[in-house]
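Researcher: Let's run the pair from yesterday's discussion. Sequence first, then tokens, for each.
Model: Starting with the first of the pair.
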Amino acid sequence: MKLYDLGYVSWQDSQALYHTLPRIGREGLFILAPSSPYVSIGRHQDARYDVDLDYCRQHHTPVMRREVGGGAVYLDGNQIFYQLIIHRDNPLAPPRKDEFYERFLQAPIAAYRELGIDARYKPVNDIITAEGRKISGNGVAEIGDFIVFVGNLIVDFDYETMVRVLKVPDEKFRDKIYKTLKENLSTVKRELGYAPPFDELRKLLAAKFEGILGSLERVNEVDPELRAKTDEVSRWLFSEEWLLAGGRKKAPADRVKIREGVEVQHKVYKAPGGLIRAVYRLEEGRIYDVSLSGDFFFYPSEALEELEMALEGVALEDVEATIERFFASRGVEAPGITPGDFRMILAGEAA
């Protein structure tokens, strides 16, 4: 397996390379950082709801959708990315996503600890300090026969811009997000009082991943085959069509009554595995035109749209059983999300 130790790259390459490597049938580990800032949203999010697109355009901040789940995040050169692409049949890859996280998060945890930060694993996919503050964001996706694991060492963080790029109902709510973020997200600089040199952190990460993966072949540039395919992938990955792909249905206010027995509803529910948003039509006790989005993880990712179709015309009292059958038949994994959570948002008391 190769270690692509690339240093600072374009913001596009910081996402496109790991999307591309499995598409040419290769395993590998990228360690890199973006040379300019941007916003990345999760696979199942709706850009129109989750990001202030007008603000981002006005401030020349690109926005892109990744194939990895999770939430919207502001990314820049103060974060060092690790991106592992490994074949699902590789004996080092655990079959369950929660086991996968627990194994490979040991590398950045070990790096933090060597720096003097008492980092710990918190299921499903977080690294936290001894005080309970998050200090790394991580996600897993499936691309073809490969598992993609991405995360970051957060050297420093722009809290102000992070909360500004989010789409929120009002400024009071934005202030609440800022305060909560400052209290619950830490950085290397905040923990140590200084930021270690980039090269030191890069080498440290590589060594800790080699402790799990074994010796890696180091390369410092992108070869022609990978470059050509990356340019091809970039054309759709950074397109507006892909960015707005989550907005399949226009969501109204929380509830709009069309006539007696017919309503269009918009609900949000916070499950342990992430926020779930649902837009659907409720007609005579049955649900139709369901659209599900949020910052959760769902494997396989294409099964989310299949679940929406499976719920077409289902009676409210049968929602949970229908989802349970679907999870079992499709082998769905949704860490921290259960069929009962989807029932809460579709047939329960979620707001």
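Model: Moving on to the second of the pair.
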Amino acid sequence: MPSGYANDYRRRDLGKLPPLGTQQYRHPSLYSSTSLPRQYFCIEGHINGISTKIWTLTTEEKETTHRQLCENIKFKILGYLRTEEYSLKILSKSRNRGYAVKIITWNCNGGFRKKYHSLDCFDADLLVIQECEDPAQSTQDYRTWAGDYIWIGESKNKGIGVFPRKDHSVEQLKWHGSFKITGLCSTSLSLSWSTSDLRLFLPFRLSNGITALAVWTKGRESQAFGYIGQFWKYLQIHRTELAGDRTMILGDFNSNAQWDKPDRWWSHSDTVTELETIGLLSLYHQQTQDKPGAETKPTFYLQKKHEKPYHIDYVFLTSALSKGAKLEVGRYEQWIPLSDHMPITFELKV
């Protein structure tokens, strides 16, 4: 509140003003007319994820003037301040400051409807869960908890779910395309593929503008391009979409450099090198300096056995997102009762 106006802080004419409580409006600009009697109101909420208070101008005549705020502000009306002297010079002291977004990626090994509360301790902003059920076809408690989520899968019981928490939101991106290997004499149909042929990828955009790709690669013994091969094929189609400055790829890749084969151009190491050419680097390897294939912190335990550790879950970030980012891998003792995968938690300074 502006200095010297504490005694003027009051609610007035509530019948003509937005109701008290949380509202969400979607308007691109701030209203700042001086042609009508002045009155100021305080809003408290989030602008692009930044918690803030704003004093701004309104009028007693049109409720719509209160709604011309920055896009996606969720706010609570605290009260109203009337004065002829205070101006709109102060909007938000914290608007340009960076803030942390905490994200978790985890293959829950199924049955997420019984496990989601185990992640409450992280107080995360976004959860990206592999091998989870579709909340729309599950229990009421799970549906209520899921909120405004997105999900894809090949059955109602196992897919990728993206669950924004707090005041964040996500938008599923409709990426479609195809790719064909040219320059060969072969006419095999396997030389071309489309996005819909590949499993399992969920592109989305966060409310703070970050483009993300959730990954749960799948494969079969009879499939030459299984697991990392599926991702390599996806990368050939959507390289341009993934080449933005604020991009992340995260999830269960079911792959590691130790399984590279010299006659595969889509081996793990070759695919990671392709990601590097568009500016995407593994946050784990940047942070630990572990060599690929010799990771010291496993993310997966085959058959849940401590003596069978592997590192197959990853977070790839562009340099704009990796600055100041921190990553942690869950501990075996804590998470093995729930899944054969450990959750990966990371924070972005955005």
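Researcher: Give me one sentence on the second I can quote.
Model: Residues 171 and 205 are 5 Å apart (CA to CA).
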